[in-house]
Structures are given as C-alpha cells and as structure tokens.
Amino acid sequence: MKTKARIVSAQELACQNGYIDEIRALNEEFLSLNGRRRRAVIDTYGCQQNVADSEKIAGMLEKMGYEITSDQKGADLILLNTCAVREHAELRVLGNVGALSHLKRKNPGLVLAMCGCMVQQEHIKEKIRRSYPYVDIVFGTHALWRFPQLLREKLLHSKRVFDISGDEAGEIAEDIPIRRDGKVKAWLSIMYGCNNFCSYCIVPYVRGRERSRAPEKIEEEFRALVREGYKDIMLLGQNVNSYGKDLDAGIDFSDLLRRLNDVPGEFVIRFMTSHPKDATKKLIDTIAECAKVERHLHLPFQSGSDTILRRMNRVYTREQYLALVAYAKEKIDGLVLTSDVIVGFPNERAEDFEDTMTLV
After folding, report:
1. How far apart are CA 283 and CA 299, in angstroms?
2. Residue 261 pLDDT more than 80?
3. What is the DSSP string of 131-200?
4. What is the pLDDT of residue 85?
5. 100-155 pLDDT, tens per residue?
6. Using an 8 Å Cβ cutoff, are 244 and 256 in contact?
7. Of 22, 108, 252, 304, which has the fewest CB atoms closer than 10 Å, so is most exposed?
8. Which residues are registered as beta bridge partners of 163?
C-alpha cells in the first residue's frame, strides 16, 4: 500500500509556535507571581519511538516555559505517553491514570494529558471520556505536532480537549523542538508508520501508513547531533528497511546508511527495527562496508514454523530467513544478531513450537 505523506506546512508550524509563545507568556506570569516555574512530568510507555515522541513533547513544553521534572506530587502538568502493543501496558496506564485522581482532587489546576498509540483507538478514547473525567487532554499519534494548540485550548478555556483524528496517508512535521534525555545516545526517527499488517500487531492502525522523512532533513538532524557530541545515534522506524519507498527520490535505507556514514565525525550508527521480508543483500553489504554502522542486525523471525508465519502474515518462510542470516554471517565480521519470537500463537501445535526451537 503506497501512500504519499502530507508535509505539515511552515504556516501551520508557525501557528503552533504562536501558541507556544502564548503559553510561555502565561507561564512567565505564573513565575513572577509564585516564584517558581510550572512543572511538567512525562511518563513514557512502550517502544523507542514513544521515547523519541516524548522528547519532542518535552522540547515543546520547555519552550513553553515549563520545568521538566519527575516529581508527580509537585507537578502542574502530567502527561502519559501510552503504548497499545501489549494489553499489559494498557492496563498499567489505566491503573496509573486512576491513581492520579487523588492528585487532581488536591490540585484542581493540575493538567492531566494522555497521548500515544493507546489513545489513538476510538474505544479507548471513549473509555477515558466516560470513566476518567479528570483527564483534560487526549490526543493520538497523528496530533502530536498540534500539542501546543491543544494545551492552549485547555488553559484558556478550561474544557476537555480530545484529538485522535486519523490520517490514512499520515503527516510529517519537521523542526519540532526536542529535549533529549542524554548527551551520548540519541534517537533519530527516519520514518513513521507501517504497511505490513502482521495479524497480531496493532501498529499500522495506530501509527498509520509508512511515511519517510526527506533524506535532507534526516542528514541535517544527524549532522546537528554529531556537532553536539552525540556518539551513539539510533535510527528509528517501525520498519526501517522500507525507508524511501514512498518518496520517489531514488533512495532506499541502504543508501541512507551510506549517506550518514560519510558524515565526518566519530560516532556509531544503529537502527531498528528491521523486517526480514524487506532486508536485502544490499543492506547486509552496506553494513559490512560502512565503518560507522554497528555490526548489529535486529531481525525478528517470530516463528520457525511456515504455517504460523503464514497466519502471522509475515510474508517470508523459515528457509528465506535462514538464508538471509547465513548471508549476513558470511559478509559481516563479528555480526551480532538479535531477534524477537512469539510462542503460543493461536492454534500453534507442538510441532510448530519445535520448528521454532530448531530455528533458534
């Protein structure tokens, strides 16, 4: 399924920056009256992409004049960035939201917000609307870049704000401020969404279709990280091997790796996650030939049974996976291979499990 992402315009981003300035003015007034800045807590669940998203939210909040902290008891804003991949993560989030009700009772001015994959689902949005009336702002993955607008709406009009609008093609918003957690390791998103529709996975429904950032914007951010002294840079995507398929720019993930490898400086490039159906010999050759690309391939196989792989809609076979790994081991000296595996898949038989064990 090939779609063309919409690039959020400079005018739209300027509007969001205007909202940031409005909120900063409110927070500067709060500082002058109270002798402290308003404090914000971001609680992140799930994958590295969620961590990267939280760094963008933190960047926006800091620009609005908030102090980022981990102390919920002293917070003026608490945001939960949620995950929907595992049911356990959803239950943890709902349990923690319930526990925050006492903070809201003690401090009615506390702003509680929820975002991320979990709340991109319509039934979760309605559950929050009905069962958690003290949650003020709810926004899905597609609305992250509009967070300043949503927060302004809450602060100025004191009403609940919900935005989980879907977008089949998806959007890409560049130049959002980022507050990174560390000084050595950095996350760098190169694409968003997924087109694979594995039968057990919700990601395409909550993250949207695959959409790649322009290579120029990626390189610009990458070079900035190198200048700032970051040594360990992780390229992120739900399926990095699909990078570039939607761009019509004649560039794929292997080409991008070579382009970033050629940037002057001392650093290591890592990436995740790879899908075996899109992992090519060209990619393996690139890893082998690029000195700054880590000799690490995270290549989930999920099952060693072709029957289960078909039910999972993984679109490769056991033998194809093993052949790819054999090629990688032949070409890449010191290869570190990591993977993911699911056992107990619906209707999995003992012999299917044994096939997984022999593949391991």
Report:
1. 12
2. yes
3. H-TT--EEE-GGGGGGHHHHHHHHHHH---EEE----SS-EE--------S-SSEEEEE-EE------TT
4. 84
5. 999 999 999 999 999 999 999 999 999 999 999 999 999 999 999 999 999 999 99
6. yes
7. 108
8. 139
Look at phi and psi of residue 327 and say left if phi exceeds 0, alpha if psi is from -120 to 50, else beta: alpha
pLDDT at 2 over 60: no
Other CB atoms within 10 A of residue 142 CB: 21
Rounded Cα gap, residues 256 and 247, in angstroms: 13
Q: By C-alpha distance, which of 339, 203, 212, 209 is closest to 276?
A: 339
Write the Ramachandran bin of 111: left for phi over 0, alpha for psi from -120 to 50, otherwise beta: beta
Q: 252: how many CB neighbours lie within 10 A of its CB?
A: 20
What is the CA 189 to chain-centroid distance, rounded?
A: 8
pLDDT beyond 80 at 170: no
| Residue pair 296/336 in contact by the 8 Å Cβ criterion | yes
At residue 168, the pLDDT reads 56
pLDDT band with cut points at 50, 70 and 90 for residue 179: very high
Four-point Cα dihedral 238, 45, 143, 52, nearest 10? -60
Measured CA distances, 358 to 308, 325, 355 (Å): 15, 15, 5
Give the model confidence (pLDDT) of 74-93 as tens digits: 999 999 999 988 888 888 89
pLDDT for 156 beyond 60 = yes
Please identify which residue in the block is written with the tokens 């996350």. 187
pTM over 0.90: yes
Token output for 39 = 């404090």
How far from each other are the two terminal CA atoms of the chain, in whole angstroms?
Answer: 32
Pairing outcome for strands 211-212 and 191-192:
antiparallel
Q: Is 95 exposed, middle or buried (0-12, 13-18, 19+ CB in 10 A)?
A: exposed
Quote the tokens at residue 139.
Answer: 């926004």
| Alpha helix ranges (H) inside 209-317 | 215-227, 253-261, 281-289, 306-312
Of 174, 176, 186, the C-alpha closest to 148 is 176
